[in-house]
């Protein structure tokens, strides 16, 4: 026979007679009065408005210029050419001219932008093999099934890198030219160091084989390039052999999907070590020479180049300053209403009707 419970019967589940379980511990309940609530509301309104004004002034001190080149300037012929998929392997170059009215002082960032391109679709985002991109040899020629239908090329070779994300990689290239009174100068851009450190050094690595004498092309032997690429992954940057394969910085930037259908991605940063760009981009006439490869008419999209300076707060984005200003004004309005109610009825409710 087991030992009988100490508190058998109808009171067996009653909590112990202690201060904690019977809720006899001392407690503090704040008394919300006009003298405590109203100063808090006015203080919060002041903080939000001042912070909003500060951020708005900071944002307004940055410069941003967007140039839509979808079919602007001489790019109209390239736009029409890209409508036919049979011309995918043919090159097309065009030029767009624009003007910068005020000097872009400090560091200037060069972006390319896409409009109405949805990188945030779940099926699109899943269409990749992270094991392959991290350099695992077993995944190089045996990609994940998530990459379907971009898993093998027309010859039956495994695609590297596989998947819809890599297959749709943005492949326009740009050369920015400054036209001064004396001559035309190519604007120097840093094309390296544009990725996140963790992406470049952790998430994306080239396959490593025991034979260190193999070239990158030999490492990728037996694989095919994505269907709509003009170059294989091991030859994306012929000028820099250390910027090829899965560690190509343009590829890494593209593989980090955007959250919204209208987005921009970093292409380069102004090299300020060369005159006359030591202070930034001088005001004047510019042109951008474009190797026009990426088609956008299939999804009713547009393409643009973006030149922007940044502050400690980031680029030119008015959302957060306006949000603070609107929130501060709403809190101030609520504080005024509560003050009027308190003033009319009295803090003890003496003037309130029964």
Automatic annotation (TrEMBL):
<dbReference type="GO" id="GO:0005794">
    <property type="term" value="C:Golgi apparatus"/>
</dbReference>
<keyword id="KW-1133">Transmembrane helix</keyword>
<feature type="transmembrane region" description="Helical">
    <location>
        <begin position="322"/>
        <end position="343"/>
    </location>
</feature>
<keyword id="KW-0812">Transmembrane</keyword>
<dbReference type="GO" id="GO:0045332">
    <property type="term" value="P:phospholipid translocation"/>
</dbReference>
<dbReference type="Pfam" id="PF03381">
    <property type="entry name" value="CDC50"/>
</dbReference>
<dbReference type="GO" id="GO:0005886">
    <property type="term" value="C:plasma membrane"/>
</dbReference>
<dbReference type="GO" id="GO:0005783">
    <property type="term" value="C:endoplasmic reticulum"/>
</dbReference>
<protein>
    <recommendedName>
        <fullName>Cell cycle control protein</fullName>
    </recommendedName>
</protein>
<dbReference type="InterPro" id="IPR005045">
    <property type="entry name" value="CDC50/LEM3_fam"/>
</dbReference>
<comment type="similarity">
    <text>Belongs to the CDC50/LEM3 family.</text>
</comment>
<keyword id="KW-0472">Membrane</keyword>
<feature type="transmembrane region" description="Helical">
    <location>
        <begin position="37"/>
        <end position="57"/>
    </location>
</feature>
């Amino acid at each position: 026979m087991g030992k009988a419970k100490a508190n058998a019967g109808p009171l067996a589940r009653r909590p112990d007679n202690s201060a904690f379980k019977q809720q006899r511990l001392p407690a503090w309940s704040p008394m919300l009065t006009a003298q405590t609530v109203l100063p808090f509301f006015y203080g919060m309104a002041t903080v939000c408005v001042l912070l909003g004004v500060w951020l708005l002034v900071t944002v307004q001190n940055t410069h941003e210029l967007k140039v839509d080149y979808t079919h602007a300037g001489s790019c109209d012929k390239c736009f029409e050419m890209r409508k036919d998929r049979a011309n995918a392997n043919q090159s097309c170059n065009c030029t767009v001219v624009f003007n910068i009215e005020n000097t872009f002082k400090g560091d200037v960032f060069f972006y390319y932008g896409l409009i109405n391109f949805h990188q945030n679709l779940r099926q699109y985002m899943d269409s990749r093999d992270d094991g392959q991109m991290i350099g695992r040899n077993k995944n190089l020629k045996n990609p994940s099934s998530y990459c379907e239908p971009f898993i093998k090329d027309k010859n039956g070779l495994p695609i590297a890198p596989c998947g819809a994300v890599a297959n749709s990689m943005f492949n326009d290239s740009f050369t920015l030219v400054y036209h001064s009174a004396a001559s035309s100068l190519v604007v120097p851009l840093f094309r390296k160091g544009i990725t996140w450190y963790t992406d470049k050094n952790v998430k994306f690595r080239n396959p490593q084989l025991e034979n260190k004498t193999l070239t990158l092309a030999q490492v990728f032997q037996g694989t095919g390039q994505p269907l709509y690429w003009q170059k294989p992954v091991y030859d994306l940057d012929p000028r820099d052999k250390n910027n090829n394969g899965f560690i190509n910085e343009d590829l890494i930037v593209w593989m980090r999907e955007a959250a919204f259908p209208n987005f921009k991605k970093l292409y380069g940063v102004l090299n300020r070590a060369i005159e006359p760009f030591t202070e930034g981009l001088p005001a004047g006439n510019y042109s951008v020479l474009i190797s026009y490869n990426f088609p956008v008419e299939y999804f009713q999209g547009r393409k643009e180049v973006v030149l922007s300076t940044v502050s400690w707060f980031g680029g030119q984005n008015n959302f957060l300053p306006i949000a603070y200003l609107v929130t501060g004004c709403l809190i101030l309005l609520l504080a005024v209403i509560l003050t009027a109610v308190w003033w009319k009825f009295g803090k003890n409710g003496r003037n309130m009707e029964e």
